[in-house]
## 1
Amino acid sequence: MLWKVKLHRLVLEEDFKRIDKTQQLKIIRAIKSKLSKAPNKYGRQLSGQLSKYRRLRVEDYRVIYEVLKDKVKVHVIKIGIRRDFEVYREIIRRLKKMS
């Protein structure tokens, strides 16, 4: 079964602007090859207030996403550098923007 993968518009408008084209392609390939096939197998569950989200490591980047099982859909909401906990602080700000 293939999962439908949707990138949030802020991923395209903000996150990808900070990532060079080569890395963007690697991230897109990983999303297509892993998240569209088995999002629960490849990503790891986050904890705390982000426990309903998962993360996928792609080299120096984290892809933060939500699995919507009832819709067979994966919603990518943030892509950021793996530096410290920066991507997790950014995801909290992103979620507030989305509300």
Note: The mean pLDDT is 92.
## 2
Amino acid sequence: MPAELGNFENRPHSKDLVLRRLVKAPRALVFEVFTKADHLAQWWAPKPLTVPRCEVDLRPGGIWRYTFRAPEGWEHDCVATYREVEPPRLLVMEASALDPSGKPFFLLRQTVELEARGDETALTLSFKVLQAHPGSEPMLEGMEAGTRMTLDNLQEYLTKIV
């Protein structure tokens, strides 16, 4: 299938994604691990990538910056702007992976919804492709598998801190 490039704010993109998980931790803790840099650095990357840099300014208009690092040493910078912050149930942000010159490969609306279920939390993580630029294809192609691995990391991390 040819690459889908351009503006997708008002139309579907083949890589729009919704993932759901029931995680074994209370909602307040799940919200915390999604919003504090020291937690995010422990799990927010598909293995074998790590997050050596993570900065969070948690407020509407605030910025979340982080860097993925591969075992081979290459790094990839990412940035997200918080649009909605409603503790402990909702985060909406616009997120991008940046090329070496700092231009975004793509722009995604990323939504994290958390619903309390006793001592567990129903998590819905949605990605809406808003813009896709040349060079975004490999990242968007791997987004679903990478996000599933990252959510596996989340569950593993939560078992260590609950």
Note: The longest strand covers residues 120-132.
## 3
Amino acid sequence: MNDILLPALLALAIVAPAAQAERKAQQVWADTCAYCHVNGIGPALLGRHLPQATVQALARYGSRQMPAFRNSEISDAELAALADWISQQPAPTEEQRHEAP
């Protein structure tokens, strides 16, 4: 029985990480951040050129009204890409501020 169980467990270990595809930074922003940070619930982030470490720490651990996002919600790789993306974005134009996220 162990001869069958071990290969099955190894197969699951190889397949499981592939099922958790990493989202692009823009998708994480749209799914998780934009609603609050575009609608004035949280501070505007785009165009401020915030340090990536600051973005990562606040997203992972939260602060005041900002909730903490667990690794199961935003992976470390997604968070790093998101922080990089946020830090490089220009400020939104007046027209973009009035568009829905």
Note: Residues 2-19 form the longest helix (18 residues).
## 4
Amino acid sequence: MAQAFCETDEKDLQKKKGVTKTGNNKQHNHNKDDGHDHEEDDEHDHGEQESTGWKSHWPLLLALAILLGMLVLEFGFKYKPAFPIDMIVYVVAFFLAGYNVLYMTFRKAKRLDFFY
């Protein structure tokens, strides 16, 4: 456990200095004059943390609520909506749950980057 606290302190210190580790454990300095451009779709972390609570996962939770609602309607109340209505509801839930993956796939396909 003591090691976990040391790693956390070290990560906080590196963030303050502008140094982060990339996926292959190489350090990357994020100073303003680091000599290379950062595009909008850059893959590595710049120290900007998204919230990790339930609010950051609201589309996935909404998709789950839609699925559960449709299951309750169909199996609990024995009511199945007409074909185009239920298909539209399921497609909306699908896009809510997977829009991040679909967006990343589209972006990588546009750059012909299929293997990373």
Note: The two ends are 34 Å apart (CA to CA).
